[in-house]
Amino acid sequence: MKTYDGPTSDHFNGLHFFDPDGAPPKPLREVLRWQFSGKRQRAAWPDWAPSPHADTPPERVDGGKARLSFVGHASWLIQAGGLNILVDPVWSSRVSPVGFAGPKRHNDPGIAFEKLPKIDVVLVSHGHYDHLDIATLSRLAKNFAPRVVTPLGNDVTMRSTDSSIKAEAFDWHDRVELGGGIAVHLVPTRHWTARGLFDRNKALWASFVLETPAGKIYVVCDSGYGDGRHFRRVAEKHGPLRLAILPIGAYEPRWFMRDQHMNPEDAVKALLDCGAQDALGHHHGTFQLTDEAIDAPAKALVEALDAAQIPQQRFVAMKPGQVVEI
To answer: What whole-number distance in Å separates Cα of residue 326 and Cα of residue 69?
Structure first.
């Protein structure tokens, strides 16, 4: 497998990327302990849990507005400034290195692929299979030939599989002009990445801050909370934020997931730290990656908001096909 080759930095040692303020992923022995321990309590998900929503987006959104359509898991269509931007697009039925096994989809994408408008830009946050889906990227390349903006090294993964994917790789703190008055910043996030057993953290991971005519949108596709410094730094450097998209699922068991995935209580703290006016919850309810029940994140988010005395309408757990306009 080809991997990134570039100069060292404060988060790349010449072979592996790392987060100076984060935590490394758990070693394989801990993965096996979680997966095969007799004490594991994995909730049963329904085989199919359809969303009551489905979206047919417009061709473009102009003016001072932004339209956000939740596709499912961490996939979004963001329309603003005349641009159509997909985030971590996954239309595949499984998120796995193989098509016959691995986490399967429990509901349809909120937008049928055939109903997508012309896609101009794709943002891919990191290399895990539930975020970087080569089959979907190849399909998008064939139909729309969009720019694909991604952190360092993930472009190598994409082009080594399909040279038609127009991948452009950037580092943390880079700002990329997308057109239409829209730009994206790649910002540090508390996570990690891999595609196989031998390429752990040989590519970079990131969150995104989008500058749009409707305000700044902070898109966190995967992150642990830690002490919250990543979110406070975004507030300091990029605030004020109109909207934050925050992960609320894939968090149990906490002893294993705490460093890399937020639970709803963490996500509420992240909202307060980043200072966004409103938030949308994603990364739940489509692929069973961890042990909590399918509806646990949405229920726990309500409880966490009540405990923090935050109005429910400020932070909403999204379902595929739901649309928000700002």
So the answer is: 12
255: phi then psi, degrees, rounded to nearest 5: -60, -30
Segment 73-83, tens digit of pLDDT: 999 999 999 99
pLDDT tens sequence across 32-55 = 899 888 788 899 999 999 999 999
- Long-range Cβ pairs for the range 34-42 (8 Å, 24+): 34/253, 34/256, 40/253, 40/291, 41/253, 41/291, 42/291
**Cβ contact 263:293 at 8 Å:** no
284: amino acid identity, one letter: H
Q: Residue written as tokens 């307060």? A: 272
Q: What's the farthest any 2 CA atoms get from each other in the chain? A: 56
Interatomic CA distance for residues 250 and 248, integer angstroms: 7
From 23-37, 59-73, 101-115, the region with the lowest mean pLDDT? 23-37
Peptide bond into 7 cis (omega under 30): no
Is-above-0.90 flag for pTM?
yes
Q: Which residues pair with 177 in a beta bridge?
A: 183
